[in-house]
C-alpha cells in the first residue's frame, strides 16, 4: 500500500479508502492506492497555500537548489524501484525504461536545481524617460507564481511528474500533484522519496491520488490554486480551461497530437524501417509519436513495402521481456476505444497489417501493431488521436501537398521530416504548424528545449526556459531615476 503526501506526512485517504492498481499486462492488481476524497484534496491545497504564503521557501533559492539535488539523488537511489513501478503499473516495456521513460531523464532534475539559483530572477532596466515623461529606473522581478496544481496522464507518468515537480520547486512554487488514476504509484513513490530523502519542508509538495478522474476538478476549481499545469488529452484540457476561467487561474496545457512523418521523395526509405516501427513503442501511447506517415506518390509502393515489413516484424509482448517494445495499452477502456477506431479504419482505408487483438497474448490489454494504407487525409483515422499502435499511411503529390496534409489537423504537437537534403527538410519544417520537428531522426526531447503544441495540442510550453517561465510571474518595480 502506498501513501498520500499531505502537509509533510505520508498518510492514507480519509476513512482509509483505497482502490486497486491494475497491471495492464496481467489484468491483475499489484496493490492498492489511496482513494482521496474532496476533503483530502482540500487539505492538500490548504497545505500548499500555507507553505507558499507563510514560509521562506519561495524566497530561499539556495535551499531550493539543495533540496532539488537531494531529490535527484533520491531518484537515483530508488531507480530500480521506479523502473519496477513503470513496468508493473503502466506496462512500459523495460527496454524503454533505459531511455526517456527513466534512465535518461533522472539527471534532468539537475537542470532545474541549477535554475533555482542561476535564472535571471531580477532584471534591471536603467533609468530613462517612461511613457509618463518621468525618468525612472525599473526592476523586473520574476517571482514564483504560487500554488501549482499538477495533473498528469498515465502514458508518460513518471517523467511528467518529475518534470512538473522539479520546475515548480525550482521556481519557488508549492505544488499539489495529482497523477492519473491508472498510475498512482508514479506519484506516491515520489512523495515517499521527498519525505525520506530530502529536506523539502512540509506542505511544499503534496501528492493526492484517487480512482475518480474528477478529483482533478477539485484542484482546477479552487481559487487558492494559481497555476494549473496539465498534461493529458485535448478534451480534458478544454474542460479544464473552461473551469479555470471562473477564477482566471493560469493554465499550461500539454495536450494530444496526430503528428506527421513527412518522407520527402529523395529520402533513404529502407533506412527508415526502425523509425517507422517506433510509432508502436509503448503500444503507441505517446503524445508526440508520428502516427501519420506521408509518402510521396512517386515512391509510394516502396514506402508501403518498408512500413509493411517493419510492422510485420513487430510483436506484442510482456513488458518485462527486454526484447519487447510493444507492451499492453493502459486499460480495457482504452483497448476498446482503439479497436473501435481500427474498425472505422477498416471501412475507410486498406488494412495491411494487424487490425485486432493478438491471439498469442490472451491476457493483458494488448492490441496488434496495425498498419493502414491509402488513408484519406480527412479520414477519421487520419484525424483522431488513436493512442494505440496504429499508423495511417497517406500518399501526397509534391512538397506543397505534403505540407498541406501535415497541417490538416486540429493538433500541432510534433512532426518529423526525412530527406537526403537537410536544407530542403528544414524548409519543409519551417512551414509545419507544430511545436517540434525532428529532421532525419534528430531528437528534440531535452530538458533545455521547449516542448509543446500549436493549435489544440496545447497552450504554453514544458521544459526549457520557456517552460520554466510558466511557473513565474513578472513584477515591475519603478524607482526614482
Ligand atoms: P486524460 O486527459 O484522460 O487525463 C489526464 C489527467 O487529467 C488524469 O490525471 C486525469 O485523472 C485528469 N482528469 C480527467 N478529467 C479531469 C477533469 N475534468 N478535471 C481535471 N482533471 C481531470 O489523459 P490520459 O488518457 O491520462 O493521457 C493520454 C493523453 O495525454 C493523450 O491525449 C496524450 O496525447 C496526452 N499527452 C500529452 C502530452 C504532451 O506533453 N503534450 C504528454 C503525454 C500525454
UniProtKB/TrEMBL annotation:
Pfam families: Aldedh (PF00171). The active site is at 254. Residues 15-477 form the Aldehyde dehydrogenase domain. It comes from the Bacteria. Keywords: Oxidoreductase. The keyword Oxidoreductase applies. Gene3D superfamilies: Aldehyde Dehydrogenase, Chain A, domain 1, Aldehyde Dehydrogenase, Chain A, domain 2. Belongs to the aldehyde dehydrogenase family. This is Aldehyde dehydrogenase family protein.
Amino acid at each position: 500500500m502506498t501513501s498520500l503526501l499531505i502537509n509533510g506526512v505520508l498518510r492514507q485517504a480519509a476513512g482509509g479508502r483505497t482502490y486497486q492498481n491494475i497491471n495492464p499486462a496481467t489484468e491483475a492488481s499489484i496493490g492498492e492506492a489511496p482513494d482521496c476524497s474532496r476533503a483530502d484534496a482540500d487539505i492538500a491545497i490548504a497545505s500548499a497555500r500555507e507553505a507558499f504564503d507563510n514560509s521562506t521557501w519561495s524566497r530561499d533559492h539556495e535551499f531550493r537548489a539543495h533540496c532539488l539535488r537531494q531529490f535527484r539523488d533520491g531518484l537515483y537511489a530508488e531507480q530500480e524501484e521506479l523502473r519496477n513501478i513503470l513496468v508493473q503499473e503502466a506496462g512500459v516495456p523495460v527496454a524503454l525504461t533505459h531511455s526517456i521513460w527513466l534512465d535518461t531523464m533522472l539527471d534532468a532534475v539537475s537542470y532545474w536545481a541549477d535554475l533555482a539559483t542561476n535564472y535571471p530572477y531580477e532584471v534591471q532596466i536603467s533609468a530613462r524617460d517612461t511613457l509618463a515623461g518621468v525618468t525612472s529606473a525599473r526592476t523586473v522581478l520574476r517571482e514564483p507564481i504560487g500554488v501549482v496544481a499538477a495533473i498528469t496522464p498515465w502514458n508518460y507518468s513518471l517523467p511528467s511528474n518529475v518534470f512538473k515537480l522539479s520546475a515548480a520547486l525550482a521556481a519557488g512554487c508549492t505544488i499539489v500533484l495529482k497523477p492519473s488514476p491508472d498510475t498512482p504509484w508514479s506519484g506516491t513513490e515520489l512523495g515517499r522519496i521527498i519525505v525520506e530523502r530530502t529536506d523539502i519542508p512540509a506542505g511544499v509538495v503534496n501528492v493526492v491520488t484517487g480512482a475518480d478522474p474528477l478529483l482533478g476538478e477539485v484542484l482546477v476549481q479552487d481559487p487558492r490554486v494559481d497555476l494549473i499545469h496539465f498534461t493529458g488529452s485535448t478534451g480534458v484540457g478544454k474542460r479544464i480551461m473552461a473551469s479555470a476561467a471562473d477564477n482566471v487561474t493560469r493554465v499550461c496545457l500539454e495536450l494530444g497530437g496526430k503528428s506527421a512523418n513527412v518522407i520527402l521523395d529523395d529520402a533513404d526509405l529502407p533506412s527508415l524501417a526502425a523509425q517507422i516501427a517506433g510509432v508502436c513503442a509503448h503500444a503507441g501511447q505517446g503524445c508526440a509519436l508520428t502516427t501519420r506517415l506521408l509518402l510521396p506518390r512517386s515512391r509510394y509502393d516502396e514506402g508501403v513495402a518498408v512500413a509493411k515489413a517493419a510492422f510485420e516484424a513487430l510483436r506484442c509482448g510482456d513488458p518485462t521481456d527486454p526484447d519487447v517494445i510493444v507492451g499492453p495499452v493502459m486499460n480495457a477502456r482504452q483497448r476498446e476505444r482503439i479497436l473501435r477506431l481500427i474498425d472505422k479504419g477498416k471501412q475507410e482505408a486498406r488494412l495491411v497489417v494487424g487490425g485486432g487483438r493478438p491471439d498469442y497474448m490472451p491476457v493483458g490489454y494488448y492490441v496488434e501493431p496495425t498498419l493502414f494504407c491509402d488513408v484519406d487525409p480527412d479520414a477519421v483515422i487520419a484525424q483522431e488521436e488513436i493512442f494505440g499502435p496504429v499508423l495511417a499511411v497517406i500518399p501526397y503529390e509534391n512538397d506543397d501537398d505534403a505540407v498541406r496534409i501535415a497541417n490538416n489537423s486540429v493538433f500541432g504537437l510534433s512532426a518529423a521530416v526525412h530527406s537526403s537534403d537537410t536544407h530542403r527538410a528544414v524548409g519543409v519544417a519551417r512551414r509545419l504548424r507544430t511545436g517540434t520537428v525532428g529532421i532525419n531522426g534528430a531528437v528534440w526531447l531535452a530538458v533545455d528545449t521547449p516542448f509543446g503544441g500549436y493549435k489544440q495540442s496545447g497552450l504554453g510550453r514544458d521544459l526549457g526556459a520557456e517552460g520554466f517561465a510558466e511557473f513565474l510571474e513578472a513584477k515591475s518595480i519603478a524607482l526614482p531615476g
